[in-house]
């Protein structure tokens, strides 16, 4: 289903034409080898006796973008926050590029987070800062770039998300779509290796939603991050991802390619697909 | 039959008693857990006050917000507190023919007690509530999570600057409160009620000692810590301890003001006893 991949795109073996093609595209050494970037093992989480995640396990290879779908309140965002290390599981574990988040030291976690970007559902822009200051903030704090370099980088980043001219506006002065785009620019400004998107198109009209998805896709083509996109955009998201994970009643119901999901005869999946 | 009913009643009573004890136990454990959480929060806050890189820009911004922007309310309350002391002091002292001691009375009351306590309560209401609400909104709109995910420590960016700003601003605000209060007492005692100006200030300088001034400074310093500690804590744990949404922020702000105010008065008692 996904056909608009760039030449540097790294696809996992199971739906991209076999191990030889994967290793050739990704430059990952011997045929059949793929580097696991995100590994979730038997993850369980409950809140006040209510089980939200019940033994979730999956792996995501480097460069792969995965859609995470499921019902509202089904634990998708909770799972994403576990992957980001913002929540601790009751049992099970999350391993990011070989680092087990249960045992990781604070300094290692900080370094790991330098490689990670997160687009929050509401944007989470700092409301006391302008759009420009929001995007410049990670560069000022995390890089040794001079102010002039930061300025040119931020303006370039804002232009790429279509926010040229909105630099001096505060988050409260711009629309929801612009907030999402500014948040995307902030998340991507440090070229993260892993990007986590929490409902990037929720609350936006279909045109802006499509624009955001295409923006994410073009950023992926540029910096080839490993990504998880929590979304309700079914089936529109399928064009932009390599794999779809579906959570249902706390368990991983489906782990398939978009094509495989579309062909599934599971009644729950069919309901989700609107049939 | 009657025995059976008695037996059931006894069991029921025992069950209710056990449930009551269980609830007290659960409440006690939760209270201890929260106190521990607050203690660790303060330790972390202090740690990032001294571990570089120190965010001087944020500290200056918070000093401006907590200190400079509280000036009007401090000037007003200080002036009127001093004027009331002038009236009440003169009324009480003149009964014993001791109205010459109006200056020391106003000075000691303000410097040792009313200055630190009233200015701390005013700052709690004006700046503490705003700090709790601001951090609370940052928490529920995931801005603190965003900081965390950028690998930037929220204690360094949000908590430590407020603690340092509180510790720097409060003694200065208290000093201003004291000076304006003494001037208010002077207006009433000297200008309105006819106490000699020389007597008012002369007796004050004779009876007010450096130890009294230091007591006021120590108190205001500790009140600055209490205000910034409690208000940032309540804001930081909005959602986790007080529920989400606007109601959560509202609860956090109310709890911040009430807890800070009560702690200020309780701590004032302990400090007064210790420094008596």
Task: Please characterize this protein's 3D structure.
- By secondary structure, chain A is α/β, with parallel strands linked by helices.
- Helix content of chain A is 35%, strand content 23%.
- The radius of gyration of chain A is 19 Å and the shape is globular.
- The two termini of chain A are 19 Å apart.
- Chain B is mostly helical.
- Chain B folds into two domains: 1-51; 55-275, no CATH class.
- Chain B is built from nine helices and no strands.
- Chain B has helices at residues 2-50, 56-66, 71-95, 102-140, 143-149, 154-192, 197-207, 210-236, 245-275.
- In chain B, α4 (102-140) crosses α7 (197-207) and α4 packs antiparallel against α9.
- Classes of the chains: A alpha/beta (275), B mainly alpha (276).
Q: In summary, what is this structure?
A:
The complex is a heterodimer of chains A (275) and B (276). Chain A is of the alpha/beta class and 275 residues long. Chain A has helices at 13-16, 19-26, 76-83, 106-113, 131-142, 147-160, 176-188, 206-223, 258-263, 267-272, and strands spanning 36-47, 50-61, 65-70, 91-96, 99-100, 116-119, 194-198, 226-230, 243-248, 251-256.
| Fraction of residues in H or I helices of chain B | over 70%
Number of strands of chain A: 10
Q: How can the largest sheet of chain B be summarized?
A: none
Structural class of chain A: alpha/beta
Rg estimate of chain A, integer Å = 19 Å
**Bulk shape of chain A:** globular
Query: In percent terms, what proportion of residues of chain B is strand?
Result: under 5%
Unreliable sequence segments of chain A:
1-31
- Overall pLDDT of chain A, averaged? 81
H and E string of chain A: HHEEEHEEHEHHHEHEEEHH
* Tally of individual helices of chain A: 10
What string gives the helices and strands of chain B in order? HHHHHHHHH
**Count of alpha/pi helices of chain B:** 9
Average predicted confidence as pLDDT of chain B: 91
The largest sheet of chain A has its strands arranged as 6-7-8-3-9-10
Strand content of chain A: 15-25%
Q: What is the total domain count of chain B?
A: 2
Largest interface: A-B, 21 and 12 residues
- How does the major sheet of chain A shape up? 6 strands, mixed
């Amino acid at each position: 289903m996904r056909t608009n991949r760039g030449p540097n795109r790294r696809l996992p073996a199971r739906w991209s034409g076999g191990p030889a093609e994967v290793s050739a595209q990704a430059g990952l050494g011997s045929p059949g080898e793929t580097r696991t970037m995100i590994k979730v093992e038997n993850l369980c989480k409950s809140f006040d006796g209510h089980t939200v995640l019940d033994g979730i396990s999956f792996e995501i290879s480097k460069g792969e973008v995965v859609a995470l779908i499921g019902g509202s309140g089904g634990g998708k965002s909770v799972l994403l926050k576990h992957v980001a290390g913002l929540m601790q599981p009751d049992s099970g574990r999350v391993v990011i590029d070989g680092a087990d988040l249960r045992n990781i030291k604070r300094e290692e976690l900080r370094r790991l987070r330098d490689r990670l970007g997160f687009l929050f559902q509401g944007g989470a822009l700092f409301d006391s800062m302008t759009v420009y200051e929001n995007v410049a903030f990670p560069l000022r704090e995390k890089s040794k770039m001079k102010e002039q370099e930061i300025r040119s980088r931020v303006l370039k980043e804002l232009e790429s998300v279509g926010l040229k001219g909105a630099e001096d506006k505060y988050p409260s002065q711009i629309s929801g779509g612009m907030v999402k785009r500014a948040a995307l620019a902030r998340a991507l400004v440090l070229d993260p290796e892993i990007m986590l998107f929490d409902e990037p198109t929720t609350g936006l009209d279909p045109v802006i939603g499509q624009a955001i998805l295409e923006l994410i896709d073009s950023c992926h083509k540029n910096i080839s991050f490993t990504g998880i996109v929590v979304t309700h955009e079914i089936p529109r998201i399928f064009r932009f991802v390599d794999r779809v994970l579906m959570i249902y009643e706390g368990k991983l119901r489906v782990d398939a390619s978009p094509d495989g999901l579309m062909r599934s005869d599971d009644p729950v999946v069919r309901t989700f697909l609107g049939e | 039959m009657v025995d059976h009913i008695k037996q059931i009643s006894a069991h029921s009573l025992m069950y209710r008693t056990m449930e009551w004890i269980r609830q007290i136990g659960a409440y006690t454990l939760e209270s201890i857990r929260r106190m521990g959480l607050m203690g660790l929060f303060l330790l972390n806050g202090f740690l990032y006050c001294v571990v570089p890189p120190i965010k001087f820009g944020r500290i200056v911004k918070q000093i401006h917000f907590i200190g400079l922007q509280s000036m009007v309310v401090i000037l007003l309350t200080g002036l009127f507190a001093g004027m009331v002391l002038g009236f009440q002091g003169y009324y009480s002292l003149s009964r014993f023919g001791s109205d010459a001691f109006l200056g020391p009375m106003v000075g000691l009351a303000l410097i040792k007690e009313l200055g630190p306590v009233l200015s701390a309560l005013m700052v709690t209401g004006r700046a503490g509530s705003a700090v709790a609400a601001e951090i609370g909104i940052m928490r529920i709109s995931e801005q603190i999570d965003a900081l965390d995910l950028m690998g930037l420590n929220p204690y360094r960016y949000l908590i430590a600057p407020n603690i340092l700003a509180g510790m720097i601003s409060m003694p200065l605000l208290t000093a201003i409160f004291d000076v304006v209060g003494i001037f208010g007492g002077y207006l009433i005692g000297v200008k309105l009620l006819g106490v000699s100006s020389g007597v008012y200030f002369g007796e004050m300088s004779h009876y007010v000692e450096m130890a009294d001034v230091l007591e006021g400074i120590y108190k205001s310093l500790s009140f600055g810590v209490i205000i910034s500690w409690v208000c940032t804590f309540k804001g930081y744990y909005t959602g986790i301890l007080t529920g989400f949404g606007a109601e959560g922020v509202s609860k956090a702000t109310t709890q911040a003001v009430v807890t800070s105010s009560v702690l200020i008065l309780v701590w004032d008692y302990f400090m007064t006893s210790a420094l008596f």
